[in-house]
Amino acid sequence: MQSPRFFAKPRATGLQSPSSPIAPPLCQPPLSSPVLFAGRNAKAPSIYIFSPPSEQLTMQESATITCLVKGFNPPDLFVRWLRNGEPLPAGDYITMPPVAESQPAVSYFTYSSLTVSGEDWRAGNVFTCLVGHEQIPLQVAVRLLH
């Protein structure tokens, strides 16, 4: 069985869709139990990306970029990071397991943090947080330009 391939669909002005599938490392098996949560409680996530804190940038050693994903249901999702459109190894970032935003659990949130060298940040690279969820097959959340 061939693994599924995802295509990026830009949501911001000035971004271009790739003409071919994203590299295989971004391919993800189907999310578990999509039928279990289908129905009126299914919600697409809101996605926010935050620049490194100015205090961290003044030290010029590293820069931590944070991607906040909230308001989604079911809790199954995945987060991937890209640098200049190229996938970063999963070991370069940390993504927390989803947590219920309220009780009963109607929606969930998670965050992912990517730490890069100060040199990598100052080079003006473009960092992208990709979020996959059954309510949005694959979405380019934000491209952080500087």
Short description:
This protein has 146 residues and is mainly beta.
Describe this structure in words.
The protein has 146 residues and is mainly beta. The chain has one domain (38-144): Sandwich (Immunoglobulin-like), CATH 2.60.40.10. Helix content is 8%, strand content 38%. The protein contains 2 helices and 9 strands. The strands form 2 sheets. Strands 1, 2, 5, 6 and 7 form a 5-stranded antiparallel beta sheet that branches. Residues 45-141 form the Ig-like domain. It holds the Pfam family C1-set. InterPro entries: Ig-like_dom (IPR007110), Ig-like_dom_sf (IPR036179), Ig-like_fold (IPR013783), Ig/MHC_CS (IPR003006), Ig_C1-set (IPR003597), Immune_Resp_Modulators (IPR050380). This is Ig-like domain-containing protein. Residues 1-23 are annotated as: Disordered.
Q: Topology, pairings included?
A:
Layout: E1 46-50, H1 54-59, E2 62-72, E3 78-83, E4 86-87, E5 93-95, E6 99-100, E7 108-117, H2 118-122, E8 127-133, E9 136-144
Antiparallel strand pairs: 1-2, 2-7, 3-4, 3-8, 5-7, 6-7, 8-9
Protein name: Ig-like domain-containing protein
Region (Disordered): 1-23
Domain Ig-like: 45-141
